[in-house]
Amino acid sequence: MGDIERRNSIPTTKSLSKLGVSAVGFSAAGIFLFILGSASLIPGIILGGLALLFGAVNMASKDRADKRAGVFITAAGALTIVSALGIPLLAKVSGILLTVSAVGFIALGIINAIRFFRGLKKRG
């Protein structure tokens, strides 16, 4: 993502594929966070627990990117459980954090998609 390229240079296939995968991944993460944030008591606890479990498995990976994703997934799972339990102040704060995170991930997905399509346009 931090690759420096000249303005008129033609992007490589590798850089375009990274942008495309990032665009889809960030957008999917944002949509998933919206779903987690809107879950009620029992589904929220179940989905939050599954996210916690999946995040813990990712944090055990040797790949640095998987560990980073695992931290975000684990945090989203914990926030979902707190939000679903309905603890007065914590539920509102966790709901706001989930919403802000979802919007941020979707924005990153859109930015990467725009960069991807601009790169395709330069190639073709």
Total beta strands: 0
Secondary structure: helix percent: over 70%
* Largest sheet properties: none
Strand fraction band? under 5%
Distance between the termini: 22 Å
Helix/strand-derived category reads mainly alpha
How many domains? The number is: 1
Q: Uncertain regions: pLDDT < 50 for 5+ in a row?
A: none
The coarse overall form would be: elongated
**Topology as a string of helices (H) and strands (E):** HHHH
How much is the average pLDDT?
A: 89
User: Helix count?
Assistant: 4
What Rg is obtained from the alpha carbons, in whole angstroms? Answer: 17 Å
Task: Give structural notes.
The chain is mainly alpha-helical and 124 residues long. It has one domain (14-123). It contains 4 helices and no strands. The protein has helices at 13-38, 41-59, 64-85, 88-123.
Short synopsis of the structure:
The chain has helices at 13-38, 41-59, 64-85, 88-123. The protein is mostly helical and 124 residues long.
Topology (SSEs and partners):
Elements: H1 13-38, H2 41-59, H3 64-85, H4 88-123
Features:
elongated; mainly alpha; 4 helices; 83% helix; 124 residues
